[in-house]
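The following block was generated as part of the benchmark described in Methods. Ligand: zinc ion.
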Amino acid sequence: MSSSSSESILPFKKLKSLSLGTDGNVYCNHNMVAVLRVAGSRSVGLGHEFYGCPLWPESDCKFFIWKEYVDVMLVKDPTLNN
Ligand SMILES: [Zn+2]
């Protein structure tokens, strides 16, 4: 187990669809607040947290983003986090 690198191994997916509210919440393609989940054993990002559609699996809009990318974006753009 090594966690020394600041570079992520996770794939950067669908960043264009990322929508951050002024409250810091993440919104899915339904324009609903996305829910935080933990990637399972079949995912490349096992154990990593990600945001997904709150209606999944009944009405999945395919929204998906790793939590760590959201965190990075919040840091890079302070206007989203005031
Ligand atoms: Zn959705």
